[in-house]
Specification:
This protein is of the alpha/beta class. It contains eleven helices and 17 strands. It has a ten-stranded mixed sheet with strand order 3-2-1-4-5-6-10-15-14-16, sandwiched between helices. The chain is globular, with a radius of gyration of 20 Å.
Length: about 325
């Protein structure tokens, strides 16, 4: 899929971006471009990634003119740039909208104008039935990328979305926080009933690469991944610590959803992943014979998931991270 392609990754100095770049450089990719705002992170990444196929662009997804310049000659765009911290977005709503929604529109316009072949955008479980601003901006972003397949008219550019849950090895994950505070002997948990979907960084990157090959344009791809209890994660990380219940924070859910009951009516099951189909007349289903329809009333929610991680499995994943 990546052979002889020029790939640009927005937010390329982040946890996902760095892992994706490493995987891409293991293939016969032609060029990998990192597009991000932070010059220090780019400088540090350039010291680590010395492959001659690497390029670095300072820029912001809010700046359409810069995107147009960066997308020149690009075949594939992986859009990972976002303001993603729930609390930060709650208190800086205008900034979240500028990056996560208007930035998505800029990506779409620039990709179409520059003739990019494929764009795949990273979403989040918080975009399904959102209760916080971050989730709402990502839902709007998902809608933009799906609709972009009709917006581009006769142009060749195709857009798809990947949606998955909490990532073990990402910056801002609860894992480094728990590791840091366990020295105090107390692990703060917002609610002992809380559950989350859980995926490793390697799995997330592989899922994106797989769907670059599968996508026809308009899909939201959702992997089948396990759930975990936050209390089990605390036990795995700090078995000797006391757990303190501090209450749910603004914009936080008890359980996360990746496929709502309404979305499930147009979702196909492919064994190891789901595909949420767009509600547009141009979406052709004749080649989707391998997927099976979901039962009435289905929803994919972290607390009703059929697959769960044990304390030992969580400890193994965290130790690997």
């Amino acid at each position: 899929m990546l052979k002889d392609k020029t790939i640009l990754v927005t937010g390329g100095t982040g946890s996902f971006g760095k892992k994706f770049v490493s995987r891409a450089l293991e293939t016969d990719v032609k060029k990998v471009i990192v597009f991000s705002r932070d010059e220090l992170k780019q400088y540090e990444m350039a010291q680590e990634y010395t492959d001659p196929r690497m390029r670095f662009f300072i820029g912001d997804v809010r700046d359409k003119e810069r995107l147009l310049r960066a997308f020149e000659g690009v075949d594939i765009v992986v859009h990972a740039a976002a303001l993603k911290h729930v609390g930060v977005c709650e208190y800086n709503p205008f900034e979240a909208i500028k990056t996560n929604i208007l930035g998505a529109q800029n990506i779409i316009d620039a990709a179409i104008d520059r003739g990019v072949e494929k764009v795949i955008a990273l979403s989040t479980d918080k975009a399904a039935n959102p209760i916080n601003l971050y989730g709402a901006t990502k839902l709007a972003s998902d809608k933009l990328f799906v609709a972009a397949n009709s917006y581009c008219g006769s142009k060749k550019t195709r857009f798809a979305v990947v949606r998955y849950g909490n990532v073990v090895g990402s910056r801002g994950s609860v894992v480094p926080f728990f590791k840091r505070v366990k020295e105090t002997g107390v692990i703060p948990i917002t609610d002992e009933r809380m559950t989350r979907f859980w995926i490793t960084l390697d799995q997330g990157v592989q899922f994106v690469i797989d769907n670059l090959g599968r996508m026809r344009g308009g899909e939201i791809f959702v992997p089948k991944i396990p759930s975990m209890k936050v209390t089990d994660l605390a036990t795995a990380l700090a078995p000797d610590c006391k757990v303190e219940i501090i209450g749910i924070r603004p914009g936080e859910k008890l359980h996360e959803t990746m496929i709502t009951e309404d979305d499930a009516r147009r979702t196909l099951d492919y064994g190891t992943y789901y595909v949420i189909q767009p509600e547009f007349s141009w979406w052709d289903t004749k080649d989707l014979k391998d997927g099976s329809l979901l039962p009435n009333g289905f929803s994919y929610v972290s607390n009703t998931n059929s697959e769960w991680l044990t304390v030992d499995e969580l400890r193994g994943l965290v130790n690997e991270y």
